[in-house]
């Protein structure tokens, strides 16, 4: 689901209130895909004055917004169903917290589908994209070599982590031409219904 834009809209409003004026697009360009400690450090360098509990503050605001619902990307359920039909294991790897994933995934039945054995959170593993360790931990869980994995990413940060892990990456560009994903060696696509063909399953 496209929660990045929803989250960055909240983030932009919050940081504007702390002295760093941003709109959603600027927040997306600057922070999309980063772990929150990195966001805090970067925002501070850019001029924001953040309280000590800022990460908890912004998560509280974001969770409230996310509870209003985040729609699924059209076609994603069909992709998951096809992977299941083919017996290909898939999982969720996120820089977000498990709580964030629970809020966004539960309404669509995907929390029960992936939790707890196919869900990997940077908050739990203490390693975040673009560090390849979070992807490698997921691969090790399924006893799969990195070279045999495919990563589907919608941020340059995630695509960089996939490349560092030695994994093929398809970059889903929902809002632009995907240039930032291409720069990280991802193969860009714009329609989730095209993914099964790219995976060789059509």
TrEMBL record:
Residue intervals passing through the bilayer: none
SUPFAM superfamilies xref list: HAD-like
Give this protein's Gene Ontology molecular function annotations.
Answer: hydrolase activity
Does this entry carry the keyword Phosphoprotein? no
Q: Does the keyword section mention Hydrolase?
A: yes
Q: Which domain of life is it from?
A: Bacteria
Kindly state which keywords UniProt assigns to this record, in alphabetical order: Hydrolase
What PANTHER family does the database record attribute to this sequence? 2-DEOXYGLUCOSE-6-PHOSPHATE PHOSPHATASE 2, PSEUDOURIDINE-5'-PHOSPHATASE
Q: What is this protein called?
A: HAD superfamily hydrolase (TIGR01509 family)
Per the UniProt record, the source organism is Tritonibacter scottomollicae
Q: What is the lineage of its organism?
A: Bacteria, Pseudomonadati, Pseudomonadota, Alphaproteobacteria, Rhodobacterales
């Amino acid at each position: 689901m496209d929660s990045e834009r929803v989250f960055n809209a909240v983030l932009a409003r919050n940081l504007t209130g702390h002295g760093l004026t941003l709109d959603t697009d600027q927040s997306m360009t600057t922070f999309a895909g980063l772990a929150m400690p990195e966001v805090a450090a970067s925002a501070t360098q850019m001029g924001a004055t953040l309280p000590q509990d800022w990460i908890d503050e912004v998560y509280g605001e974001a969770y409230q917004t996310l509870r209003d619902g985040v729609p699924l990307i059209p076609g994603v359920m069909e992709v998951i169903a096809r992977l299941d039909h083919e017996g290909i294991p898939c999982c969720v790897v996120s820089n977000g917290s498990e709580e964030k994933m629970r809020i966004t995934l539960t309404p669509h039945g995907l929390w029960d589908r992936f939790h707890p054995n196919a869900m990997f959170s940077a908050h739990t593993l203490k390693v975040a994209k673009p560090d390849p360790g979070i992807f490698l931990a997921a691969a090790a869980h399924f006893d799969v070599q990195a070279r045999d994995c495919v990563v589907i990413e919608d941020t340059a940060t995630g695509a960089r982590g996939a490349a560092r892990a030695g994994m093929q990456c398809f970059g889903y560009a929902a809002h632009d031409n995907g240039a930032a994903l291409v720069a990280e060696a991802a193969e860009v696509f714009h329609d989730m219904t095209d993914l099964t063909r790219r995976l060789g399953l059509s």
